[in-house]
From TrEMBL:
Protein localization: Cell membrane
Covered residues, full protein: 408 to 699 of 751
Similarity section: Belongs to the cation transport ATPase (P-type) (TC 3.A.3) family. Type IB subfamily.
Protein name per UniProt: Cation-transporting P-type ATPase B
Top-rank taxon, per record: Bacteria
Organism: Flexivirga aerilata
Coiled-coil parts of chain: none
Length: 292
């Protein structure tokens, strides 16, 4: 089979900026009742910036950013790129002597002779690093404001936090409204935690959130909903989303996302605007009505 996408509905599909893999795609779309929306890069721009660096008691803000940034330089994750960029602006990055990426949790490695860990508190715990209550409280406060906060530790102790912020795409709320008006149930699906997920969901009008999902488990979430009798569309952009996009009854990729996600999907929204997901479902319904 050729992986080349077809432009279907030649008038409307193309006008709407939708690349569709084959004519059967729109047929499956008709019965969709649930739309899973990935958070980072789909509902939000995925272009993150460091909003705050919070050192633990007795630690230096600059060193927290420098060591976290040096380590994150080795990762391609949007959070990592934000932290590495901010650290680079402050000065040259120290070389990384070893590096490990724990998908959906964070990164660890040796920088400048220190054993550094950056990521979710759970990952630091795995390294025997406990977060003091003060830091946990500061983390929670920043998360309630919608930031994604990662913890930074080295040599067995928690050293601080880095808060990164992503912007919600300007059309995401409108897209959610349109999905609802088509009778669809929007659900936010993310590896990020419940607090951040709720903050983003509230701002775009989504009630239902499935948070803290590891990359490998996103496809299982889709399967579970299908077993409950739902017909599921999944909209995503990342390498992390590929298996879920393939598992969904209708996989929709953001054209601004990764090639892996685009290949795993049935349909691509070229300009990466979530309104395209609603357009695709509406188009399929009207096309089939015309045929009948
Ligand atoms: P999403 O599903 O929203 O696209 P991911 O599954 O990629 O998010 O990541 C989930 C969480 O894992 C992040 O919110 C972050 O806390 C942590 N994480 C993942 N990669 C990194 C990294 N390179 N550095 C720090 N934290 C990370
Ligand atoms: Mg994503």
């Amino acid at each position: 089979a050729t992986p080349t996408a077809l432009l279907v509905g030649s008038g409307r599909g193309a006008q709407l900026g939708l690349l569709i893999k084959g004519p059967e795609v729109l047929e499956n779309t008709r019965t969709v009742d649930t739309v899973l929306l990935d958070k980072t890069g789909t509902v939000t721009t995925g272009r993150m910036g460091v909003a705050d660096v919070i050192p633990a008691a007795g630690e230096s803000r600059d060193q927290v950013l420098a060591l976290a940034g040096a380590l994150e330089h080795a990762s391609a994750h949007p959070i990592a790129q934000a932290i590495a960029t901010a650290a680079e602006e402050a000065g040259p990055l120290a070389p990384v002597e070893s590096f490990e990426d724990a998908a959906g949790l964070g990164v660890s490695g040796v920088v400048d002779g220190h054993a550094v860990v950056v990521g979710r508190p759970k990952l630091l715990q795995d390294w025997g690093i406990h977060l003091p209550d003060t830091l946990l409280r500061q983390m929670y406060d920043a998360e309630r404001a919608g930031a994604t906060v990662v913890a930074v530790g080295w040599d067995g102790a928690a050293r601080g936090l880095v808060a990164v912020e992503d912007r919600i795409k300007p059309t995401s709320a409108e897209a959610v409204r349109r999905l609802r008006s088509l009778g669809l149930r929007p659900v936010l699906l993310t590896g990020d935690n419940e607090t951040v997920a709720r903050a983003v969901a509230d701002r775009v009008g989504i009630d239902e959130v499935i948070a803290g999902v590891l990359p490998a488990d996103k496809a299982a979430v889709v399967r579970r909903l299908q077993e409950q009798g739902r017909v599921v569309a999944m909209v995503g952009d990342g390498v992390n989303d590929a298996a879920a996009l393939a598992q969904a009854d209708l996989g929709i990729a953001m054209g601004t996302g990764t090639d892996v996600a685009i290949e795993a999907s049935d349909l691509t929204i070229v300009r990466g605007d979530l309104v395209g997901a609603a357009d695709a479902i509406r188009l399929s319904r009207s096309t089939l009505r015309t045929i009948k």
